[in-house]
User: Fold this.
Amino acid sequence: MSTKVTHRWRSASATLLLAVALLTGCGLPTAGRPANGPVAAGPSPDGNLAPVTTDGPTEVAAVVPSSLPVVPVSYPASGGNRWVTASAETAPARTGRGTLMRYRVAVERDIRGLPVKDIATEVTATLNDPRGWTAAGAWRLRRVGADDPTDFTIYLATPGTRDTLCQDVPEGYTSCRNGGRVVLNVARWVKGVPGYGADLTTYREYMVNHEVGHKLGFGHERCPRRGRPAPVMQQQTLGLHGCTANAWPYPQGKVRYSGPVGAYDDEIPRREGAYSEG
Assistant:
């Protein structure tokens, strides 16, 4: 075969391969990247395109929707002390010899974007967790409805209503337990606390377990040693004091994780907006 024919064959082959690549979209570099490099697969939280690595050859990138619409959460500084109560949980009643404690979940009507059903589901998942207060078999915890007999009520309240229900120092920042009232401050539920060192889900689990722990008879505890997990009965909202965040009373099984009894001298309630980690 002559050199001229060879060149024509190579040119025709290259043209054919380019046409196939253009039609299929496979194997071509994207925005200057090599053909097998990462491609954009949707927006990241900062609004830029997030790279996604692949194990094999890269194909045409699919555009992934960033997220579903988010309902904004809003609440006044002080609500009207009116409530929506969740229905009873539908799971079969748990058997055992532990003391049965029945509780309701109620959300203040002025809080928008946090449906009572969702709050009740999250609270119940925390209290039913095998690392929670039922781990050792001393208690059984069950969510009941508005008209059922109950031992305590878990309220998600605005900061001002928190002060009304807690009847302690009116600081509008922390959560509390007052008799049969377990009061979760919606500002903490939504914002967490600065410098906590764990995600918001962990902080919410801590809120629930800490205040329910008071209802079950436990007082405040201290960090046992720097670098160790904080006991759930430590006032983690007001500082970890060298410990790390921990939401569970039984993180390793049936032996309760605890620390020295007592609170720190600097754990003084602060008002919303004036609190900072020390």
